[in-house]
From TrEMBL:
It comes from Streptomyces flavotricini. This is DUF3000 domain-containing protein. It comes from the Bacteria. It holds the Pfam family DUF3000. Residues 1-22 are annotated as: Disordered.
């Protein structure tokens, strides 16, 4: 299993950097939780530069679900922190994500697909007993049809989930970011078409679609 990696918004890596003296302790501990998370096989996760203007402190990871030479899905998870709190968040931390994958035709045709994809996120959080609030987001599908010299390719549909939620803070004002990252990776794997693993809860309302094992190739 891979351990998560990442960086602070000021470019500092590791708690020994002199520049981190100005980083609030709750945020440093939350980032440590992300770094120590143990993830299921098949997920490649790397640091990426976080946005600079969404919050005073930010930390970002990008990940892909890989099978052989294929990337089945990819995404980005950003941890934001405002020590003064944020009215829209109803807290001092916020998690923001983008995940996307290419779908096979039979999945793209399912009219319940947007609701199912959203249930994958909320179900993964609830299955781990994670308290969260102010969840919001969009599920978008975009289809591509090919013509002329590309007419032999079959139509392709990409699905994209953009979401954010406020993780409830625990001891010392620090959310369980390790568990939130694991839940997010479960979302990434499900949109990639891999079967769920780990904590399950039949009461979470998670709905399954036919599983797939990689993008369709013409």
């Amino acid at each position: 299993m891979a351990a998560a990696q990442g960086r602070f918004s000021d470019g500092a890596d590791g708690v020994d950097s002199a520049e981190e003296s100005s980083v609030p302790l709750p945020f440093r501990r939350a980032v440590d939780g992300l770094k120590k998370a143990r993830l299921r096989p098949g997920i490649e996760i790397d640091p990426t530069r976080p946005p600079q203007r969404l919050a005073p402190h930010a930390y970002a990871l990008e990940a892909a679900v890989v099978e052989g030479e294929d990337d089945l899905a990819d995404g980005r998870l950003i941890l934001l922190h405002d020590p003064s709190g944020h009215d829209a968040w109803h807290g001092t931390f916020r998690l923001v994500t983008l995940v996307r994958a290419e779908l096979e035709p039979e999945m793209a045709a399912d009219p319940l697909l947007p609701e199912v994809c959203w249930s994958w996120l909320t179900g993964a959080l609830e299955a781990r007993g994670l308290a969260y609030g102010e969840a919001s987001g969009t599920v978008t599908m975009a289809s591509s049809h090919y013509f002329g010299g590309l007419s032999e390719r079959r139509p392709a549909t990409q699905i994209e989930i953009r979401a954010s939620w406020t993780p409830r803070e625990g001891v010392g004002g620090v959310p369980d970011t390790s568990a939130h990252l694991s839940a997010w990776c479960e979302l990434l794997c499900q949109i990639a078409g891999l079967p769920p693993v780990g904590p399950t809860d039949s009461g979470t309302g998670v709905v399954s679609l036919p599983q797939r094992r990689g993008p369709h190739h013409p």
